[in-house]
Amino acid sequence: MPVLADRLWTAAEVQALPDDPSHRYECVDGVLLVSPTPRLAHQGAVSALNVLLEGLVRPAGVGTVFVAPSEWVLDVRTLVQPDLYVVPLVEGRRPRTYEERAQALLFVEVLSPGTARFDRVVKRERYLRAGIEYWIVDLDSRLVERWMPGEERPSIHTEELVWQPAGAIAPFVIVLDPFFTEVVGPA
User: Fold this and answer.
1) Could you read off the pLDDT of 123-153 as tens digits, one per residue?
2) Which of 92, 96, 108, 146 is deepest in the core (most CB within 10 A)?
3) How far apart are CA 56 and CA 106, in angstroms?
4) Left if phi > 0, otherwise alpha if psi is -120 to 50, otherwise beta: which for 27?
């Protein structure tokens, strides 16, 4: 279960914490979020999504995918590590430094029992405030909540998700059943 600290944290303070392979440390609007190492099903989902999305965005020259642990500082009091994020390419290649990354095209979180409240509320509100499209992947319900900046409600996807990020000539169609079947088994 994530732990909340009593004081406001900065991104720099979180970055200065000692390495701890059994926990992930983030802060959102100064609130420290500490979560345990993800379960195997969670990591399998992140891996499968990485392969799926990278296979779409890289060949189209739209972007590239990074997976946690990879931090993103949104402001002085917000450092997050989305499970997966997509950023535009830099002169046709992957960004080599954090400073080279442009505005994210997409942040994705795969729900875990210990992080669901933070993913659905705290992080969602912050990601949308930053103008970043956000997907919440719910393995138990076999669906993807797609949150768009400026929208009050998500679109819910159980069969397919049509996504056209900035720079894409045509939309990408992501069929969800094969993904969920690979990660959690047949329905």
Assistant:
1) 999 999 999 999 999 999 999 999 999 999 9
2) 108
3) 13
4) beta
Which token pair is 70?
């990879």
Distance linking the first and last C-alpha atoms of the chain: 28
Three-state SS for 114-141 is CCHHHHHHHHHHHHHHCCCCEEEEECCC
Q: What is the mean pLDDT of residues 110-128?
A: 89
Nearest to 64 by CA among 98, 32, 89, 81: 89
SS3 161: strand
CA distance 35 to 3: 7
| pLDDT reported for residue 1 | 41
Three-class SS of residue 68? Answer: coil
CA 142 to chain centre: 17
Element (H, E) at 169: none
